[in-house]
């Protein structure tokens, strides 16, 4: 076996390590076969351990586990007879092999993590360099995101902090010379770190330029990441958005022609409504949000859910006439299906009420503040409406809390 710690071929190194990890995983399920391909692969690594593992102090534990595995396999091979002693020896050996294989898998995963993080941080040292392979960096970022989203791991966290991965990702995210693709994938990796351990990485998001960079990129991808961060960090992040004067920029994306961008901007505003405290909601209303929402609701992509509710009732009455024994659950499913289809084709339907509902059920406001803002929204709706009928419909939705 060639030395998998050779730094000249990082993709091949990781492929070898992934294969060894899979072998150790398979061995846990079939530890009674001393001639299995999984055992052969790991024993081959043990044979070369003096050349491969002795060079890295991090791999001493793995070397010990491989040595134990070799001893256990030899014991298993010697207990092939039908005596009670051999039977008991095989039972103990197979159980021990399975346990050691689990330990080997853990150590190989740690090895993979070290290699992967080293490769990523090296690639991120100068992400805007035209000589770098953009596809390879995107692949490294995607693999990193997938790894941290597997859940918290103390050893992995130590590696991340030691390598200062967050700073490297933030640098790439904020580098205007980088391609949008690399910046967006760096943004996703930052969001993954927040999910990995919010307590450790939130402070770096709040104190750094991450949020401004996401808004500056101004793509549907960057805004989806921003929405994810708001959901994770909640009111403190909305406070930061408001104090940095970013709310007008976010609202301005409701005016773009790109429908996807307009929709994710709407999602972001709804999240701000849910988690925003008084200052943030005041700022968002002062920017004419209600007027923009009324215009969107009036557009071909708008509409109101009160009308859909009326159509639902009419459809259900017709169906009941046809089938007197209709099941209520079936009716409800059809109702939800009709509403979902309507919202897919009319993403801004009842958007004023949807924003008002976010304030009503959200976490950022006190009860008296919620009541005051609801009245202010109603007042602004009446000012923005082109007719009494339009105002009455939207106000009714706000008052009754129509929401998808």
Automatic annotation (TrEMBL):
It comes from Acer yangbiense. This is Nucleotide exchange factor Fes1 domain-containing protein. Residues 314-333 are annotated as: Disordered. SUPFAM superfamilies: ARM repeat.
């Amino acid at each position: 076996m060639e030395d998998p710690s050779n730094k000249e071929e990082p993709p091949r190194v990781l492929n070898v390590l992934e294969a060894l990890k899979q072998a150790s995983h398979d061995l846990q399920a079939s530890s009674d076969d001393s001639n299995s391909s999984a055992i052969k692969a790991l024993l081959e690594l043990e044979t070369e351990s003096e050349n491969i593992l002795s060079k890295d102090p991090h791999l001493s534990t793995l070397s010990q586990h491989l040595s134990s595995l070799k001893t256990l396999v030899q014991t298993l091979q010697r207990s092939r007879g039908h005596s009670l002693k051999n039977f008991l020896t095989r039972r103990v050996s197979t159980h021990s092999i399975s346990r050691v294989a689990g330990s080997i898998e853990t150590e190989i995963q740690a090895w993979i993590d070290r290699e992967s993080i080293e490769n990523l941080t090296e690639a991120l040292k100068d992400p805007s360099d035209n000589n770098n392979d953009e596809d390879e960096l995107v692949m490294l970022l995607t693999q990193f995101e997938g790894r941290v989203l597997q859940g918290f791991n103390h050893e992995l966290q130590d590696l991340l902090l030691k390598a200062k991965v967050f700073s490297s990702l933030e640098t790439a995210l904020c580098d205007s010379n980088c391609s949008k693709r690399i910046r967006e994938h760096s943004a996703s990796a930052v969001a993954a770190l927040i999910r990995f351990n919010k307590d450790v990485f939130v402070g770096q998001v709040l104190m750094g330029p991450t949020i401004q960079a996401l808004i500056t990129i101004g793509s549907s991808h960057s805004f989806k990441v921003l929405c994810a961060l708001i959901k994770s960090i909640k009111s403190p992040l909305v406070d930061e958005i408001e104090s940095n004067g970013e709310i007008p920029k976010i609202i301005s994306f409701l005016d773009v022609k790109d429908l996807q961008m307009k929709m994710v901007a709407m999602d972001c505003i709804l999240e701000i409504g849910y988690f925003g405290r008084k200052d943030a909601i005041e700022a968002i209303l002062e920017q004419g949000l209600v007027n923009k929402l009324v215009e969107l609701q009036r557009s071909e992509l708008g509409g109101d859910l009160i009308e859909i509710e009326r159509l639902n009732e009419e459809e259900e009455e017709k169906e009941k006439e046809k089938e007197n024994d209709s099941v209520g659950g079936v009716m409800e499913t059809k109702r939800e299906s009709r509403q979902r289809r309507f919202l897919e084709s009319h993403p801004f339907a009842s958007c004023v009420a949807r924003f008002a509902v976010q304030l009503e059920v959200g976490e950022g406001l006190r009860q008296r503040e919620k009541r005051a803002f609801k009245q202010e929204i109603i007042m602004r709706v009446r000012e923005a409406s082109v007719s009494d009928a339009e105002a009455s419909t939207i106000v009714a939705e706000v008052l009754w809390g129509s929401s998808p």
